[in-house]
Amino acid sequence: MDYYPIYLSFKLAMVTTLILVFLACPMASLLAYSQFRGKPFLEALVNLPLVLPPTVLGYYLLLFMGPRGPMGALFEEVTGERIIFSFPGIVLASLVYSLPFAVQPLKNAFERLDTRLIETAYVLGLSRTETFFRVILPNSVGGLMVAIILTFAHTVGEFGVVLMVGGSIPKETKVASIAIYEYVESLRYHEANLISLLLSVLSYLVLVLVFFVNRRERRC
After folding, report:
1. How far, in Å, CA of 171 to CA of 7, rounded?
2. Is 90 exceeded by the pLDDT of residue 103?
3. Contact call for residues 176 and 155 (beta carbons, < 8 A)
4. Is a pLDDT exceeding 80 seen at residue 99?
5. Cβ–Cβ contacts within 10 Å for residue 131, how many?
């Protein structure tokens, strides 16, 4: 059995999670603490991947990242290569698809934080940036951990979006979920069962870890 799709899934999940942690922190802070007229529309846009069928999202990403799309044309002009059907392409697709799993836990953690801590920081002369890194983020470690865990696990299990944008190129875009699909199609149930079992165990352990972190946060 080829184990490379499992490695590729974990590689994709790690890269996506690392990037999303940096992107989600300021976005979650904006949604948690700012009030502006278009906020409901921004929140709906961030959470759209939760309700949008993966194939629909993948289709629009394919148009956006294709040779005639704005992102695809720019990427090809700069690098001389196409972004679709490549590892950078499925990373970009995963960033969009997993965004709400990174933003929502952080937003919830920021909203639970005692506002008196933030007000005290401002009174002591800390800037917004200093307050975020020295007060808000250290007191929201639980939410940060949940965001990291959920983003990683969700990315490992991606199928529709990755298939639409990346196809099934061995050692490039063929992740574990796509390998399972192809094993079942070719009646290779033993290999499909092994990868499915691994992903099932991983998903269970992720949920246990999330519940453990949430329970510990409530006790604190």
Report:
1. 9
2. yes
3. no
4. yes
5. 18
Query: What one-letter code names the amino acid at 30?
Result: L
Binned at pLDDT 50, 70 and 90, residue 77 comes out as confident
- Please spell the DSSP secondary structure of 155-180, one letter per residue: HHT--HHHHHHH---TTTT--HHHHH
Element (H, E) at 134: none
Q: Which residue has the tokens 């990683």?
A: 152
In whole angstroms, what is the distance from residue 33 CA to residue 112 CA? 11
Place of tokens 């948690």: 32
- Pairwise CA distance, residues 162 & 145, whole Å: 25
Q: Would the CA dihedral through 181, 183, 185, 190 be positive or negative? A: negative
Indicate the residue type of 70.
P
Does residue 139 contact residue 113 with C-beta atoms inside 8 Å? yes
Task: Quote the CA–CA distance of 75 and 85 in Å, as a whole number.
Answer: 13
Supply 211's token pair: 């519940």
At the fourth CATH level, which superfamily is domain 4-32+53-214? MetI-like (1.10.3720.10)
- Between CA 151 and CA 98 the distance in angstroms is 6
User: Which pLDDT value is given to residue 211?
Assistant: 80
- Chain length of the chain: 220
Please check whether residue 93 is in contact with residue 163, taking contact to mean a CB–CB distance below 8 angstroms. no
Section 64-90 average pLDDT: 89
Provide the residue ranges of all domains of the chain, joining segments of one domain with +: 4-32+53-214
Residue 99's alpha-carbon distances to 95, 104, 123, 137, in angstroms, are 6, 9, 33, 19
| 70-76 own/partner pairs: CB under 8 Å, 24+ apart | none
